[in-house]
Amino acid sequence: MKSLYIILFLLTITLEVFCQGTSLLQEIKQDSAISLYLTQDWKQIEKHKKDKAYQSANVRMITTDKDTITIPAKVRTRGNMRLQICSLPPLKVKFEKSDLAAHQLSPLNELDLVQPCHAADQYYQYILKEYLAYKLWELVSPAYFRTQLVKIHYANQDGTDAHDPSYGFLVENTEELVERLGGRRNKTPVISNNAVDKQPMLRVALFEFMIGNTDWFIQNRHNLEFVVIPGHPLLVPVPYDFDYSALVGATYAAHHESLGLTSINSRYYQGWCFTEAEVDKELDIFRAQKENILAMPYRIQGLSQKSADQAREFLAAFFEIIENPRKLDNQIISHCDMWPVKN
After folding, report:
1. Fewer CB near the last or first residue (10 Å), C or N of the chain?
2. What's the pTM value of the predicted model, to 2 decimals?
């Protein structure tokens, strides 16, 4: 009997180690979009939109190699502003760990699904441009949320279509992010500037400037996750949610009123003050990726030629700024530490 317990224990440990190696997101990860069939009671999702109550759903994912994973899930709405204004707000998709184990997958059981705000062509382009922003951040930092482009097929429980198919994307959960980076998540509700690693914070600020995004703030963790990872004694920021950026150009987006900006297409550096040498060193990361950054809009499946051209033009203007010493000083180096809250 003792030997049997030992064998069962070893089998359990072996299974856990195996499962921890491959998450659901890893299993479906590919460069092109996968097909995601989401079946649920969409009327109930709408009914419980504000209270964010979970609803039963069924998820089927098909890769281009025709690999298929079908798994039950629970789905709820998430977000803040998009939750209020969108008919199709972002969703949280949660799986039972036992169902993941049945597919020999790790127990990392949550994914975020970002979908178009409304079922209309311009919103389909917005969502693809936001996905573009995530892919651009991947080019300049190792601390990023992984994403997977999906073609969403919406179905009611009776098999009828709930909405026309549209592009969206999955975003990995923070727990998966920190496991991948070999670190841990910081859950402090209010972040002090003194607790944040300045070099990666500068890179975030420069990136947000590049895409024309001011919808982030350190102290209240707005659209920033903070993690502790090897090689960094202080907190490392990881940005997300870029739908308010000028790169996306969503009609519902707006700058914070305290910035005094009149156009969503404006760039505004809202980072800390750094020396010219410190800024230049970080900008070398962007300069080294210039070719890839300017080419990335044309690599996004489903993004129209017009949207890709507009995105490239906006990104090219960033390089014109950082390659012009006067503009660089006026718009970044001397335009710093503008927020009233310091620590």
Report:
1. N
2. 0.92
